[in-house]
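User: If only I could read backbone structure tokens as easily as an amino acid sequence. Those tokens are not coordinates but codes from a learned vocabulary of shapes. Could you go through the record with me and say what the backbone is doing? Here is the record:
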Amino acid sequence: MSTPDAATPASANRSLRGLLFLLATIAGVSVANIYYNQPLLDNLRQSFPRSASWVGAVPAVTQLGYAAGMLLLAPLGDRFDRRRLILLQIAGICVALVVAATAPSLAVLIVASLAIGVLATIAQQAVPFGAELAPPSGRGHAVGVVMSGLLLGILLARTAAGVIAEYLGWRAVFAISVVVLILLAVVIILRLPRSQPTSTLPYGKLLVSMWHLVVEHRALREASLTGAAMFAAFSIFWSVLALLLAGAPFHLGPQAAGLFGIVGAAGAMAAPLAGKFADRRGPRAIITLSIALVAISFVVFGVSATSIAGLVIGVIVLDIGVQAAQISNQSRIYALKPDARSRVNTVYMVAYFIGGAVGSGVGAVVWPIFGWLGVSVAGVAFAGLAAWNHLRLPSRTAAG
């Protein structure tokens, strides 16, 4: 693997910081593509009135595509140069975005959205790449920097798409993303080093080896369940927030819910700090604190059903807690098997997004029956599940 300029410690640190910022940008810009379509559903209904009842399939197949891409493409980072994989996926997603921007029918848009989801897993190459570039003593900080970009992409994608669509139309959202990705590819060619493959396994055995990693490493199983429960809590809030804001006493539209993404960006900005604490104090201590923060955030939500200020405070606490746990969990698992970081990351992230889907599903069931208080109680329950899983084993046995 090509390494940053090591002529002096200062120049090496500057070079590493620059590479981590580039990887954070790659993660954020790529993952944003799976969220752009969510605020556009009403626009799509108007553009394709004969297929209006099927517009919900657009975000659904995008998410399914992302899950498939994580499982089928992300492990390739152990087998091939990650820089080349990132560039190939950028080329592919640009083609899919052009098809989406020019789609003559909803059916074509749905197919393009599936491809966008599969190829947007570029982010799952960027995060383990950051862990690979950093020294062991700074791995948590490196993961935190790259993950801050990914979370910013998740939180701000809806806001950006809503603003662009309002002034330029929904097709412009996909077209502008193509331009941004092409510019990013140029920077990658100029600045990002190659990585050194760590496995020679054939593709089939590469996939099968992920099951062996799950069986072999207790810490991977624990981190995956904890992460899934935390992302379930995160998702239940964000999946129901727009419904809360639409009703009394707020009577606010989807744009207001999108603006909460900007508030949530505070959690993303705290990610590098969480990584530093994980490096210094150990990741398990930070995860314990993070779980407590998520539980507290839902207590705040529960008493803030009519308060914007309370919701804002809760969002900040929630996102800091979820993000700090994510950084610490990934810092732990990347140390388990350095030659299989992409596969370890795939196991963790597949569990993570399954947790997110469960959280959204629970929100859809709980909201119409129990309202906002029920959603808040479910969020505390997810935090409780994370706490039980995290604390049920002594730290010495949960480390590997």
Remarks:
- The longest helix spans residues 341-391.
